[in-house]
Design brief:
Structural class: alpha/beta
Distance between the termini: 46 Å
CATH topology of the largest domain: Creatine Amidinohydrolase, Chain A, domain 1
Order of helices and strands: HEHEEHEHEHEHHHEEEEH
Number of domains: 2
Helix content: 25-40%
Number of strands: 10
Radius of gyration: 23 Å
Length: 286
């Protein structure tokens, strides 16, 4: 019986070691990561970024620390990945979050020259603070390119999670096709297909399923408003459009599984395509 499909703590540790090995030639004292996807990749800690800064610190010796607001302490401490969890009370507040970050950097010896995905926590949702280089007085080297290169090479477990995502995204898309008909609305069809696929997924793997995504949970399929004339607009937004005969449809389907996503997109037509639609479709494939 399968009891877990998640990335193991051992794999997270191996990723940290591999990152340090990649950066060894740069003689960095450590790495600081703020991006939630990077933190999830190396530490298995999932969070939704807000005005409360969160930072993952990896020293050159391999010590791992997480700086979080007080309300995230128990969440962080439940992860076996961290050697230490430091916190501040709240943002805005006193002492500020930057004090906790600065003291943690000093305690781990991450000074002088360090790597980071970006020079400080991003200014989002009202957060305003100094850059990492201003805060630490260190020379900050951007390491996002090395991180992306490492993330691009998938492990066996990662591929299995992506395939699991494909399975349920595909089911949601099949149901989307089944329920799409003239007179129905984009919203009702997408919601019905997504809900049914999600319930089927939970029946199958519910006990071992986690989305670990701050965008969505469960299987989803929809049109994002790319229906009829709007199908020419890339990355549009859903508009509760009513389906009509001859509409060109652009779909999208996925399902987050332990932080991993697949993407299924199709171009379809309601009813029989016209000769011009067939010509343009073949032109697209060419």
């Amino acid at each position: 019986m399968v009891t877990s499909i998640a990335i193991t703590p051992e794999e997270h540790r191996a990723r940290c070691s591999a990152l340090l090995e990649r950066l060894h030639a740069d003689e960095l004292s450590g790495v600081v990561l703020f991006d939630p996807y990077y933190v999830l990749y190396y530490a298995g800690f999932a969070f939704a970024p807000t005005e409360r800064p969160i930072a993952f610190i990896l020293s050159a010796e391999g010590e791992r620390a997480l700086v979080v607001p007080r309300l995230e302490v128990e969440h962080a401490e439940s992860k076996a990945m961290f050697d230490r969890v430091e916190h501040y009370l709240e943002y805005p507040g006193d002492p500020r979050s930057e004090v906790a970050l600065e003291s943690t950097l000093s305690a781990l010896g991450v000074t002088g020259k360090l790597g980071a995905d970006q020079d400080g926590y991003p200014w989002i949702l009202g957060y305003r603070g100094p850059t990492l280089s201003e805060l630490s007085g260190a020379t900050v080297v951007r390491v996002a390119a090395q991180i992306e290169e490492q993330m691009a090479v998938k492990s066996v477990t990662e591929i299995a999670l992506i395939r699991e995502s494909c399975r349920w995204g595909n089911l949601a898309h099949r149901l989307l096709q089944r329920y799409t008909s003239t007179g129905a609305t984009e919203t009702e069809v997408a919601q019905r297909a997504s809900n049914e696929a999600t319930f089927a997924m939970l029946d199958a793997i519910g006990e071992i399923y986690r989305a670990q995504s701050f965008f969505m949970s469960g299987a989803h399929a929809g049109y994002r408003g790319q229906i009829g004339r709007n199908s020419a607009i890339p990355h549009a937004l859903a508009g509760n459009i009513v389906f009509q005969e001859g509409d060109v449809l652009v779909t999208g389907a996925s399902a987050p599984v332990w932080g991993y996503l697949s993407e299924l997109e199709r171009t379809m037509v309601i009813g029989e395509p016209t000769a011009e639609q067939e010509r343009m479709f073949e032109h697209m494939k060419a």
